[in-house]
Amino acid sequence: QVQLVESGGGLVQPGGSLRLSCAASGFTLDSYVIGWFRQAPGKEREGVACISSSGSSTYFLHSVKGRFTISRNNAKNTVSLQMNSLKPEDTAVYYCTAAGGYWGQGTQVTVSS
C-alpha cells in the first residue's frame, strides 16, 4: 500500500521546537521532490518548504526562513522538517507530499502558551 505518514506534531510553547517526520511506504522517496504544506483553520493550504530529490536544493516560505530546516534520508525513506523558534502563527495541520501526487494525512502542530 502506497502511503505517506507524518509524525512528530504536538503542542509546544512559543519559542519551542518540533521535528516532523514524513515516512513513505510502498514506494521510495528518492526520486521525488518532497514538500511540506500546512493549513490553519479558515485559511488556504500553503507551501512551507520543499527539498529536491538529491537534497541539494531547498525552498522555504518567507515567514519560516531561518527557523525551519528540511532534510531527507533516502536510505531510510524519510524526510524531516525541523521547526525552531515556533510562533503561534505556525499553528496548523502539516502535510507532506511527494511531488503533489501522494499526500499524508497530516499532523497537528499547535503553538500556544
The N- and C-terminal alpha carbons lie at a distance of 39 Å
The percentage of residues in β strands lies in over 45%
Instruction: Please tell me what the overall shape is.
Output: globular
Would you count the extended β strands for me? 11
Proportion of residues in helical segments: under 10%
Evaluate the radius of gyration.
13 Å
| Low-confidence parts | none
Structural class: mainly beta
Q: Main β-sheet: number of strands, strand sense, barrel status? A: 7 strands, mixed
Arithmetic mean pLDDT: 96
Number of helices: 0
SSE succession: EEEEEEEEEEE
Short description:
Helix content is 0%, strand content 50%.
Descriptive notes:
With 113 residues, this protein is mainly beta. It is 0% helix and 50% strand. The strands form two sheets. Strands 2, 4, 5, 6, 9, 10 and 11 form a seven-stranded mixed β-sheet that branches. A hairpin with a 3-residue loop joins strand 9 and strand 10. It is globular and about 40 Å long.
How do the strands and helices of this protein lay out in sequence?
Layout: E1 3-7, E2 10-12, E3 18-25, E4 34-39, E5 46-51, E6 58-60, E7 68-73, E8 78-83, E9 92-98, E10 102-103, E11 107-111
Parallel strand pairs: 2-11
Antiparallel strand pairs: 1-3, 3-8, 4-5, 4-9, 5-6, 7-8, 9-10, 9-11
